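Our preliminary data section would be incomplete without showing what the modeling component actually yields. Below, a chain of 188 amino acids is followed by its predicted structure, encoded as tokens that our downstream tools consume directly.
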Amino acid sequence: MHEHDFIYLICGTNRPNSTTQRVTRRVEQHYRDAKIRCEFLGLDSLPLEIYSPDAYAVKPPAFEPLQQKVFDAAGLHIVLPEYNGSFPGALKYFIDMLKSPESFEHKPVAFVGLAAGSWGGLRAVEQLQMVFGYRNAHTFPDRVFIPGVSQKFLKDGTIADASIDQRLQHQTSGFAHYCGLFRSARSV
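Predicted structure:
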């Protein structure tokens, strides 16, 4: 990737201090350890003005920097929990606020799913993949699912299961390479 490119890491819930946020921060650390530029977006920091009914017609100025980051990112790496058999409404609302179709058009996207149950967010990721597929994004095939997520962390917030941490590290390096391939193809 070129030096001005970055991976936009999206924590797919607006719950502050969530397990999803801890996993997203761990993914961020893997990118930083590999010297790959990334930027973090927690949906708990979305500008409140976007929740006005008028925001559908006229996006508030506070949303423009987020929109621009989606445009500028080499790829989107989304970490999402499974809520009620699907992905969080806050994530869908964020997606709905972005310009369509150009926000995700030919954009590489990677997914990490997590859940308290044994499927590790599989349903949520697969449903979200349909949304991104509809918007012509390119899904990175190496998805990571974390089942029983509440038992996977130590009290200090670190991941207790080394195999999960290894899968996250493998995914970050693979996704950075995948984004670089798309960048190379666009510049030809």
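The CA atoms of residues 83 and 186 lie 36 Å apart. The chain has a mean pLDDT of 92. Preliminary results of this kind motivate Aim 1 of the renewal.
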